[in-house]
Amino acid sequence: MSFETVNGALQISFSMVATAALAAVLLLIGFWIKGKSGVLTKYCIPAPVIGGFLFMFITFAGHQSGAFAFKFTTTLQSPFMDAFFTTVGLGASIALLRKGGLLLIIYWLCAAAVSIIQNFISVGLASVTGLEYPYALLAGAISMIGGHGAAGAYGKTFVEMGYPAGVTVGAAAATFGLIFAVLVGGPVARLLIERNHLTPDTSETLDTTVEEINAGSREKLSPLDVIKNVAAILVCMAVGTQISGWISTLIGMGFPTYVGAMFVAMIVRNLNEKFHWYHFSFPLVDGIGDVMLNLYLSMALMSLNLYQLLDLVGPVLLVVAAQVVALIILCYFIIFRILGSNYDAAVMCAGMLGHGLGATPSAIVNMTAVKDRYGMSRKAFMIVPIVGAFLVDIIYQPQTIAFIKYFVSGFTGQ
Hints:
Layout: E1 2-6, E2 9-13, H1 16-36, H2 38-42, H3 47-65, E3 68-71, H4 77-90, H5 94-129, H6 133-138, H7 141-144, H8 147-160, H9 166-196, H10 204-214, H11 223-251, H12 257-275, H13 282-302, H14 314-338, H15 343-357, H16 360-374, H17 378-407
Parallel strand pairs: 2-3
Antiparallel strand pairs: 1-2
C-alpha cells in the first residue's frame, strides 16, 4: 500500500495482494453482517454483495467530500473468475450434461428472448424520451446481457461515431445492472419458492444420480492428490484462456477467457473419468470454486465507483430501471412457468436475473444464496453457467448488431 496526495485528496493505492486481501476481509465482513441480520438472510442477499456495497459507499463518500480516494490493482479479478468457471467445467460430467437436456434449450431460448425484449425496450423508450438511440441501446442488452465488457466495446465504437458519452453511459448502465442483478435475484426466487411451497427435487431421477456422479470416495486426499487437483485447475485455465484468445482472433471480436477455460475443464473431467489420470475430488474443486467466486464478486463490487451513476442522465436511468422491472415481471410470471413451475425453475429465475442484468458470476452468486437457504438445484447450476457464459451470445450478439445497424446511422459492425 502507498499513500500520496493527488489534487488535494489522499489517494490510497493498493497492490495486487493488498487488493485481494481487502476483498477477502470485506467478504468476511459480509458473512458476519449477514449472520447477524435476519432480513439479509431471509432475502438471500449474497455476502460479497453486503461487504462490497459497504465499501462502495465509503468510496462514494471520499469522492463526494474530496478527502480521499482508493486505487486498486485488480489483476487477480479475472483469474478468480476464470478459476471459478474452470471448477464449474470440472464438475460437468457427460452424465450430468445429459441431465440438462431439453431444459437447457428452453432456458437458452428464454435468455435469447430476454435480450431481444431488452433492445425493444431501449429503442421504444428512446422514441418516447428523445434519447439518442446509441445511448438507449447501451442501456439495453449490450450492458444487461453483455455486461461491462460489451458495454465498453460498443461504447468505444459509439464514441468513434460521434457519441462522446458512449463509454461512460455503457459503464454506468452495466454497473447499475450489476448492482440490481445481485439485489433482486435472491428475493424473487425466495418469493417464488415460498408462495408456491417449492422444495428441491431429491428423487433418484436427478439428485441421487448426480450426487453419485460427483461424490467423493470418502478416502482422505493425500497432499499429492490435492496438488494434482489444483494443477488440473491451473492447466485448464492456461489452455482454455489460450484457446479463447485464438477464437477471438478468428472471429474478430472479444471471446471471454472463462468460456474457453470452462469447456477445456469439461473435456478434462470426462477424459479423466475414462483414463483415470488422477484422483478427482469434486468436494475439493467445488470448495475452491466457491472461494474464487466470492473473492471475484467482492473485488468487483468494492472497486466499482458508485459516483459514476451520477453521470446517468434521466432518460438513460429510466431505460435501465425499465429493464430491471421488465425482467422481474418476465421471470416471475412467464419464465418460471415455461421452465416448469418447480424448484429448479425458481433457482434458474434467480440465475436469469443475475446474468440477464449483470454477469454470469452474479447469476451463480444469486443461486448460491438461494441454495444455501433452501437446497441444491443441480439442473440450475449446470444449465445457467453454460447459457449465461456463452450460448446466449449466439443470439444476443447478432440481433443487437441488427438493432444498431437499423437505428444508428453509420454503424458498420465491429
